[in-house]
Amino acid sequence: MLAVRKARRKLRMGTICSPNPSGTKTSSEVCNADWMASLPPHLHNLPLSNLAIPGSHDSFSYWVDEKSPVGPDQTQAIKRLARISLVKKLMKKWSMTQNLTFREQLEAGIRYFDLRVSSKPGDADQEIYFIHGLFGIKVWDGLMEIDSFLTQHPQEIIFLDFNHFYAMDETHHKCLVLRIQEAFGNKLCPACSVESLTLRTLWEKNCQVLIFYHCPFYKQYPFLWPGKKIPAPWANTTSVRKLILFLETTLSERAPRGSFHVSQAILTPRVKTIARGLVGGLKNTLVHRLALISVYPLRFCRRS
């Protein structure tokens, strides 16, 4: 699988349209919302790991709360600076990597979601939140939004990759997994051989959700897939040239069997990048470089 995660804007597979302001759906939007169901029959029996699956990076970060405490994923130095109100406003500009909600991403065709979660200091009800520097929406709210879409589009399959956990003990993990069970129920796909998973087999079992859990806690639940089944090599660069080379190399070196593979087509700002574009934020600093990256998925599909 090529789950391409695009920061700063949605990934395009074919043509992915922005939401229509009028509220009506164009034919392209309808197609993207049901693109798996619309695939030709000869692909229905192909292992999912052989399909190119569009995804998003920090998928939940279309909204972050600048009034909340700074997340436990940040250093003590950042936490001290964040006592100044302006600092959180600047952090918000660098924490938001998406501009579409879960529902809008799903309607645009996104099927892989990069998820980072955390408990919140002083929150006594064990609620879990999405996190990227600042706290996002409650995980439960996001899961319910996703489940609503899946109920209306029963042949679409999604990958939820819970890959970072902060300030979470066993009680928090149990709470999160219970939320996942409550949200998706029988839509959850039990962990099994990657090669055995095809669209047809999932449709026959009415399974729509694969949960990847990068924590030993996955062993306690049959519907949690180990994180090693979906490696996501990270280039950690601001250079488009280095990123493309990295993607080409890691894709060619991926394991031939036994796992999916995430190609992170994202640019990562350095400290000096943030310093230079502090006020402008992520959107105004790196987005203009994405045009050069956007052709990468098409290059891969042509080769395949």
Written overview of the protein:
The protein has one domain: TIM Barrel, CATH 3.20.20. The chain contains twelve helices and eight strands. It has helices spanning 27-33, 76-81, 85-95, 102-108, 139-152, 170-184, 199-205, 240-252, 271-276, 281-286, 290-293, 296-303, and strands spanning 2-6, 52-56, 112-119, 128-132, 134-138, 158-166, 209-213, 224-226. Strands 1, 2, 3, 4, 5, 6, 7 and 8 form an eight-stranded mixed sheet that branches. Helix 1 links the parallel strand 1 (2-6) and strand 2. Helix 4 runs parallel beside helix 5 (139-152) and helix 5 runs parallel beside helix 6. The protein is globular, with a radius of gyration of 19 Å. Mean pLDDT is 85; it is low at 1-24.
